[in-house]
Amino acid sequence: MRLLLQRVSRAEVRVGGRVTGRINQGYLLLVGITHSDTASQLEWMAEKVAGLRLFADADGKMNLGLADVGGAVLVVSQFTLYGDSSKGRRPSFVDAARPEIAEPLYDRFVALLRERALPVETGEFGAMMDVELVNDGPVTLWLEK
Q: What is the CATH number of the domain that holds 80?
């Protein structure tokens, strides 16, 4: 599983002009699933996201987590995180899981975040999505498990 986490002050995802998810302060998560991902990897990643302390405290140090600031999560599926452009000019996506494998894992990851009492919004798996965000920082992390 690969995840690109962006700390945002606002983020929104639209499919065909219809808003499918919108948050204010929190994390925008672009999530890529590979064919060998397991339930334990999803658990680890959900726990990591829920526990990260990426918001500033009164002293300006990154000491506060999502729950401390009333933050939310916007989760967007992103198979291109498994794009390999090391050869040629067109990336290969053979490491990205096929939709019949990836979608149930993506859904489980979203459920695991919700089980941790996080407000979670989502895009629409497999759809062409427009994602709009306002960086808070910028703070961007690459997580992989």
A: 3.50.80.10
